[in-house]
Amino acid sequence: MGLNSTTRWKWLLASATLAVVLSGSFSEIPFGFISGTLIGTLIGTPANAEDGGNLYNTELDVTQGRSYFERQCSRCHGFDATGNDETGAPDLTGRLNRASTDVGIFDILRNGIAGTAMLPVSATLPDTQIWQLVAYINSLSADPANIQLPGNAVAGMELFTGKGDCDSCHMISGKGGRLGSDLSFVGDRRDPEELVSDLITPTKDVEPRWWRLRITGRDGTVREGFRMNESSFSVRIMDTDENLWSYAANQIETYARVTDSTMPSFAQTLTDSEVDDLVAYLFSLRKEI
Ligand code: HEC
Ligand code: HEC
After folding, report:
1. 184 CB under 6 A from ligand 2?
2. Which tens digits make up the pLDDT trace of 252-280?
3. Can you tell me the distance from the alpha carbon of 263 to that of 200, in angstroms, rounded to the nearest whole number?
4. Measured by CB atoms within 10 angstroms of the end CB, which terminus of the chain is less buried, N or C?
5. Domain interval for residue 99
6. What is the pTM of this model?
């Protein structure tokens, strides 16, 4: 059930690459360093592909999980699991950064997170007890149906295509632009607090797939865009007008990665209540279960 050696290798490699790439929000990288596969490993979690789900998910399991958590985990993650800045242990009550499935959480507990204070649980701890911890951690994320938001979703929907002009970059149900993520089910991915931060401080936590390349050609032109294709011989980018530009390797003078967001902050251009309305709308966009 643990991380196999390939996954572990990829994960180490990903961390090493991230360290290089993140060493400045704008860093020069020799052409050819980043291959498609390498970027692939940066995205996603180290969880195994298949997720059989958690069989130990009764109320009793959750209670057992909680009591183990309070004894073994709370000194770092806090008694209520909301995290602790001093130990650097994150909040476990919302969406996790490192895992999106039960198996992913299980793997973190069984194997720890290499190079961090998050150590594996005792090797003799039975799988059942780890699953109970998983059940407890899952029980901490709030059921969206019980969350009361201050905003008005209908007003938010109007702002999305109106004053906010969000649809120039984002698609919902097949309508809108391609310069930002598809938001059709964004309520499944982001909680209301994260949605506020998406609107106010978009440049925080930009996922690698939204990073851009800034290319200075041998002819002196500078262009920036999302990386569309890349090989050892050429690279193709899409600029903000959705134009595609191709470069042969020998046409490129310098090549840099830009890791901030192209999304403007709406801190100044929308009122607090408009932000609330948009958040209520976005949070309502979920897959029907
Ligand atoms: C010595 C402090 C410490 C203890 C004890 C500890 N953790 Fe952690 N934990 C951390 C730190 C630090 C991280 C963040 C590592 C990173 O991602 O850089 C973390 C990360 C995690 C994550 C991933 C969070 C995410 O957002 O992806 C989970 C899940 C987790 N811990 C669960 C537990 C559980 C369950 C226990 C008890 C069995 C436990 N931890 C015990 C320090 C600790
Ligand atoms: C100029 C293009 C652009 C505009 C205009 C724009 N966005 Fe974005 N948005 C992006 C990009 C690119 C990202 C991904 C990078 C990031 O996380 O900031 C993003 C990310 C997001 C996210 C996080 C999505 C996720 O998949 O996790 C949300 C939510 C969001 N935008 C909502 C909005 C709303 C609401 C508006 C209008 C008020 C808006 N955006 C306007 C480009 C844009």
Report:
1. no
2. 999 899 988 989 999 999 999 999 999 99
3. 10
4. C
5. 48-141
6. 0.56
Kind and range of the H or E run holding 169:
none
Give me the helix-helix angle, 127-140 and 59-72, nearest 10°: 100
Ligand 2: centre distance to CA 263 (Å):
5
Q: Do the domain assignments include residue 237?
A: no
What's the whole-number average pLDDT of the chain? 80
| Domain count within the chain | 2
Q: Is residue 7 part of a domain?
A: no
pLDDT over threshold 60, residue 16: no
pLDDT band at 161 (very low <50, low <70, confident <90, very high): very high
pLDDT average, residue stretch 26-35: 37
232 in any annotated domain: no
What integer pLDDT is reported at residue 49 of this predicted model?
Answer: 30
Cα 51 to Cα 228: distance, rounded to the nearest angstrom:
31
Sequence-ordered alpha helix ranges (H) in 168-258: 186-189, 192-200
Ligand nearest to the CA of 117: 1
DSSP 8-state code for residue 15:
H
The last residue of one of the domains, among 106, 141, 176, is 141
Same domain for 111 and 135 = yes
What is the residue with the minimal CA distance to atom 16 of ligand 1?
116
**Paired strand residues for 227:** 237
Q: Residue 246, SS3?
A: strand
Q: Give a yes or no: residue 274 inside a domain.
A: yes
CATH number at residue 189: 1.10.760.10
CA distance 47 to 96: 12
Ligand nearest to the CA of 132: 1
